[in-house]
């Protein structure tokens, strides 16, 4: 049973078990998910709990196998799991613009079917990887941005969305549609998260052109008074894109609609030097017995050009696993052990191919493949964990610092989110 105690072993304390739906997907997805699973299993073993994996075929692989990108039963498996762990979907093999089914439809079905209305993308720069960025080191100082992207509305879900033939030729239409309720819930989440961080929200829109953005701006103005300790600003998306490169440290929490968030978060990823560095969590209002129900995935794509070559950077997937442990399973110590192990490996000069040119100070750089890097991280998790069998829980009430292994920033973020969602 999901989250139930494992009573099959007599004479020992029962071991909590959590059920995770794993979706390797396409391209490098199977490689990075395999890497992430090894690290998560190491953290579970060290932390005194178990992960029960159920692997699903979605995306392009599902089109090849079943003729559809996702089956109804697969959505139910994801809904019943404690969390979902996703690699990547899509690729040029399925990019025929005339195709009736496309891999990305699986993502939309997951987001809509699981009611995952917010995508959280933390952007930080590891000190050991400052040289990986094309930006000057002084520009990267104090970069700590959380991008909150609305995930189930806007152009990606609006109807009609189609190509038409007219007497004048072909035309295409996409519909940008938002309700005030959709805007309210993601904006309110952004303000809650900012309350546990540096108390600054930047709301991004295109209000000088789009009616949907003007409604977005009105709703932000209505929600903001609920959070008198949080300052906020409106910024146009083109201005924001420029400022992310010019002065990324000026941002704390950025909240924006679906399309803008998709583009800005990929741009922000390059502050770190590689798309392979940044994790993400997609969450909604639903909670399980352990925490928020969510889907966790790296922000990069399927990278079919390097698929099967053991070259993909698994760090974003590994760190997405850490977010899964913290947010959905309440295993804060295990999450912290993974994050510490990744940082330690980078500090010691271990690099994936995309980071091969980045030095290690006085040390020696050693370039590893996808699986070898994951093995190094897993070994450090196994060797460095002191969590034992104690169960870390999603912080409750008003004292998040009591959660063992949780940093002040992590505790504040989770507590703020729990408060917003009405979690105990």
Give structural notes.
The protein is of the alpha/beta class and about 425 residues long. The protein has 2 domains: about 1-120 and about 275-415, Isopropylmalate Dehydrogenase; about 135-270, Isopropylmalate Dehydrogenase (3-Layer(aba) Sandwich), CATH 3.40.718.10. It is built from 12 helices and 15 strands. Strands 1, 2, 3, 4, 5, 6, 9, 10, 11, 12 and 13 form an 11-stranded mixed beta sheet that branches. The chain has a two-stranded antiparallel sheet with strand order 7-8. Helix 1 (about 30-45) packs parallel to helix 11 (about 370-385), helix 5 (about 180-195) crosses helix 6 and helix 10 packs across helix 11.
Helix content: 25-40%
CATH class of the largest domain: Alpha Beta
Number of strands: 15
The 3D shape can be described as globular
Straight-line distance between termini: 22 Å
How is the CATH topology of the largest domain named?
A: Isopropylmalate Dehydrogenase
**Strand/helix succession:** EEHEHHEHEEEEHEHEHEHEEHHEEHH
Tally of separate domains: 2
**Range of strand content:** 15-25%
CATH architecture of the largest domain: 3-Layer(aba) Sandwich
Tally the helices: 12
Low-confidence stretches: 1-10, 385-424
C-alpha-based Rg, rounded: 21 Å
Structural class by sheet pairing and helices: alpha/beta
């Amino acid at each position: 049973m999901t989250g139930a105690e494992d009573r099959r072993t007599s004479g020992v304390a029962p071991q909590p078990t959590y059920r995770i739906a794993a979706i390797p997907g396409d391209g490098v997805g199977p490689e990075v998910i395999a890497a992430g699973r090894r690290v998560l299993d190491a953290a579970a073993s060290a932390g005194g709990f178990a992960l029960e994996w159920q692997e699903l075929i979605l995306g392009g692989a599902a089109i090849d196998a079943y003729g559809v990108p996702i089956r109804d039963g697969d959505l139910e498996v994801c809904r019943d799991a404690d969390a979902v762990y996703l690699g990547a979907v899509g690729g040029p093999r399925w990019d025929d613009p005339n195709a009736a089914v496309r891999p990305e439809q699986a993502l939309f079905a997951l987001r809509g079917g699981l009611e995952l209305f917010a995508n959280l993308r933390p952007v930080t720069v590891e000190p050991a990887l400052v040289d990986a960025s094309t930006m000057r080191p002084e520009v990267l100082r104090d970069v700590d941005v959380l991008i909150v992207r609305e995930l189930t509305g806007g152009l990606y879900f609006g109807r009609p969305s189609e190509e038409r033939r007219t007497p004048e030729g072909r035309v295409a239409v996409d519909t940008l549609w938002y309700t005030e309720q959709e805007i309210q819930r993601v904006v309110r989440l952004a303000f809650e998260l900012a309350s546990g961080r540096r108390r600054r929200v930047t709301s991004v829109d295109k209000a000088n052109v789009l009616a949907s953005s003007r409604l977005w701006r009105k709703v932000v103005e209505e929600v903001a008074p609920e959070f008198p300790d949080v300052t906020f600003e409106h910024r146009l998306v083109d201005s924001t894109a420029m400022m992310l490169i010019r002065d990324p440290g000026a941002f704390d929490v950025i909240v924006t609609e679906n399309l803008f968030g998709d583009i800005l978060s990929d741009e922000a990823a390059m502050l770190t030097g590689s798309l392979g560095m940044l994790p993400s969590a997609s969450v909604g209002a639903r909670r399980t017995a352990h925490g928020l129900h969510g889907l966790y995935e790296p922000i990069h794509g399927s990278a079919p050009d390097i698929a099967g070559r053991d070259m993909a950077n698994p760090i974003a997937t590994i760190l997405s696993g850490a977010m899964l442990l913290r947010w959905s399973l309440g295993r804060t110590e295990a999450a912290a052990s993974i994050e510490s192990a990744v940082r330690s490996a980078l500090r010691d000069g271990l690099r994936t191919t995309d980071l091969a040119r980045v030095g290690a100070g006085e040390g020696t750089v050693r370039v590893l493949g996808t699986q070898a890097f994951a093995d190094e991280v897993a070994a450090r998790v196994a060797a460095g964990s002191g969590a034992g069998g104690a169960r870390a829980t999603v912080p409750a009430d008003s004292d998040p610092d009591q959660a063992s292994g949780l940093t002040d920033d992590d505790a504040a973020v989770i507590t703020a989110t729990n408060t917003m969602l009405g979690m105990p």
